[in-house]
Every structure is written in C-alpha cells, then in structure tokens.
Design brief:
With about 425 residues, this protein is mainly α. The chain has 17 helices and no strands. It is globular, with a radius of gyration of 21 Å. It starts with a helix and ends in a 14-residue tail after the last helix.
Length: about 425
C-alpha cells in the first residue's frame, strides 16, 4: 500500500468520525432549540407548533429573524463571500470557524421555525473540518477533493440517518465519479457517520408513509407526469439561484429578515405546516387526511404557502437548505396533480402520487436523479413496490429538465452576446 493510499485511508476514517460528531451535534442542538421555542419534547414539529398560540408563533419567528439577521450581519461585515460545499470540494478555502458560525446560525433559525432546510449546516461544517484534516495529513489535491466531498455527504447522512443517500450525493453531485478510489471512501464515511450519530438502531423514518401499492393508473401517471414534475423542479432550481443572488448581506438584512419572518409567522397562524424544514408540509401531503375534506384546495394552499415562505426567507437574507423544502414542494405538486387523477382513475393512494412527485421534483432540482430517488426512499422507508412508476417519472423528469437547461443555456449565450445585456450569477450551489 502506497503512502498516499494509507493517508487516504486514515483521512476516510477521520472524516467519518468528524461528520458523525457534526451530525450528532446538529441533531441535539436542533432538538434543544425546538424544545425551548415550541415545548417540543417528542412528536413532530407540526404537533408542537399547532399546540401553541398564534401569538407565540409570530413571536418566535420574529425572534428568529432578529437573531439570524444580527448573526449574519456580523459574519458578513468584513467578508461577504460564502464558500459553498461545491467550492470547498473545488479547492476554495473554507475556514472551519467561519463555516461553523454560518452553519450554527442556520440550525438556530430552522429550530425557531424558519422555512428552510437544516441539511446545509452539517454539510458545511463536516466539509470544512474534513478539509482541515486533509491538509494536516498532506493529501494529494485529488485525494483532498475526495475527502472534502465525503465529509459533506457524510454530514448529510448523519443528520438524517441516510447512509446510502449520503454516499450517492457525494458521488453523483460533488465528485461526479464512480472510481473505486472515490466510491469506497464515500460509502465508508457515510456508514461511520450514521453509526456515530444514530447508532445501530434505525430511528423512525423522517416521513410516515403508508404502504404504497403499484397500479396501472400510477404507472401511467408516472410516465406522463414525469416531464411536468421535471419542468417544475428545474424552474425551482432556477428560482432559488435568482433569489439567492439578490439576498442582502449588508445592513439591509437587519430590516428585511425580521420583516420576512414576521410574515412567515403570520402565515403560520393559519397554516402551521409552513414552519420548519419542510417535513410538516410534506407529511401533510403524504397523510392525505384532507382528501375527504377540503381536498384539492387545501393541498394547493399548503403547496403555495410553503413555496412563498421558502422564497421569502431566502430572498430576505436567510441561508439554509432547499433539499427538504424541495421534497415538500414535490410531494405537494404530486398530490395536487394526483388527487384529480385518482378520482378519474382509482387504484392508488394519494401518498403514492406525493412520493413520485417528491422523487421527480427533488431529482431535477438537484440535477441528481439517483440521489433524489434514493433520498425519498430512505426518507420514507417506502418505494420498493412502486419503483417502476417512480423510475419512469424520474426518467421523464430528467429528460424534461435537460431539455429546458439546454434551451436556457442557448438563450443565455444569445443574451450575453448582446452588448449591455444583464448577466445572472448562479448561486444555487451555495
């Protein structure tokens, strides 16, 4: 075994431990914040939020906006640059202390109810500390790249207890490689990280979904609606990039973020599922208890409310993940389309349409169809019985998103060739 291989092996082991400890810390910190803010000592965030008064919801969200604004204002006061995980994998410095500050602020506001995901925080911290370990071990540039990517993927795996998804995320999104030198560290770091964060016993699945059954109706739905879901996922990715590019990082954030969070709090007084990382909104769609009541109107209302609050949070200066919000939006879109479909062609649960919507939407919004599908499978513990319609939907979604991306690229090139035309900076990877 060569020296570089031995160093990579040591780095792999250390990275798994680092990511596991980071994930464990984020899990416990989030639970402590939610317990203090919402009296959440078990059950779900939606149950806890629904049990408190509307005034408390607005008050907690206002506090989140003020604290988040102050933290990020101080962080960006001297340096407004933010190194993304993709940038760190590419070699851009990611100082561990700055990354930790940035990440812990995200965990804080998510715990207080911000309408963004928590998954970026452990990815950033794990990537930053893994990079420091790689530098200390003297890894080659390529091995350092592998380890930083593995740290980010393992951090994602640790915080949600999704070892396979963490490894696939590393390989498909960050490294775009299936070499043995990349595959082995990706799998090992994710496995070690999950073992440290959650132990041998698999915690409850992130979403509770009834057993899904296949049907011809669901299969045709997946084949026909996949491109629609893909177009929506692609549009979501573009919108996130545009919104993220204009978010304030100066004194304006002291005004915009608290005001935005007051609005989110007011929305939550009528639709409490908008709060948090999207689990509540997605669970509402998977449960489909509304199908016999308000039905389509309610599903559409939850979908629109979650979309609006997520973009409002990002545009006002908030930072956080869009992975779990994308699951919520995809599940909502699947339910909204699937409910009338199921009425016209019975045979499948609304939850099955929500599952397919989440997988196709997430896969295209991340530009990673395998990661999207496997994430939703690990999140729900379901999907084996409906893999055929799910695969057809994800395939169609990927085709539509690729076609739209090519058209957008040609349009951007045409626009950029015109003197004085504006240029858009894509910050979706941050």
């Amino acid at each position: 075994m060569s020296v570089s291989t031995r160093r990579l092996a040591v780095a792999t082991f250390l990275t798994g431990i680092i990511a596991g400890l980071v994930g464990l810390a984020c899990i416990h910190l989030l639970h402590w914040i939610q317990a203090a803010a919402w009296d959440m000592h078990g059950g779900t965030l939606l149950e806890a939020v629904s049990a408190v008064s509307p005034a408390r919801r607005v008050g907690v969200l206002t506090l989140a906006g003020v604290v988040g604004a102050l933290s990020w204002f101080l962080l960006f006061r001297r340096n407004k640059a933010v190194t993304s995980v993709a940038g760190a994998v590419g070699g851009t410095p990611m100082p561990p202390l700055r990354a930790t500050w940035h990440a812990l602020t995200q965990v804080l506001i998510v715990g207080l109810g911000a309408s963004v995901g928590r998954e970026v925080a452990p990815r950033e911290m794990a990537a930053a500390f893994s990079a420091a370990a790689a530098d200390r071990l003297g890894l080659t540039p390529e091995d350092r790249r592998i380890i930083v990517a593995c740290g980010a993927g393992a951090g994602l795996a640790a915080v949600y207890s999704i070892p396979l998804s963490g490894a696939i995320y590393t390989l498909e999104i960050l490294l775009v490689s299936l070499s043995a030198r990349a595959v082995a560290p990706a799998l090992i770091t994710s496995g070690i990280a999950v073992l440290i964060s959650t132990g041998f016993t698999r915690p409850a699945f992130f979403y509770t979904v009834p057993t899904l059954t296949p049907s011809l109706s669901l299969t045709i739905f997946g084949a026909l609606m996949g491109p629609v879901l893909g177009a929506a996922g692609w549009a979501f990715k573009q919108a996130v990039a545009r919104t993220g590019a204009i978010r304030p990082r100066d004194w304006r954030i002291l005004i915009t973020l608290p005001l935005a969070f007051v609005v989110v709090g007011l929305v939550s007084t009528h639709i409490p599922s908008v709060l948090g990382n999207g689990q509540a909104s997605a669970q509402t769609q998977f449960d489909a208890t509304w199908a016999a009541g308000a039905g389509l109107a309610f599903a559409l209302l939850v979908l629109l409310a979650k979309t609006a609050t997520t973009f409002l949070t990002i545009g006002a200066g908030g930072w956080g993940g869009v992975l779990t919000p994308a699951v919520a939006l995809g599940a909502g879109l699947g339910a909204v389309i699937g409910l009338p479909w199921a009425s016209a062609w019975p045979g499948s649960e609304v939850a099955a349409f929500a599952f397919i919507g989440a997988a196709a939407f997430l896969g295209t919004s991340m530009k990673a169809p395998f990661t999207g599908l496997i994430l939703v499978i690990e999140f729900t513990g379901q999907g084996a019985t409906i893999l055929v319609p799910a695969v057809l939907a994800v395939g169609g979604a990927t085709t539509a998103a690729s076609w739209l991306a090519r058209r957008h690229s040609r349009g951007s090139l045409t626009a950029s060739s015109t003197p004085g035309s504006p240029r858009l900076t894509d910050e979706s990877g941050r």
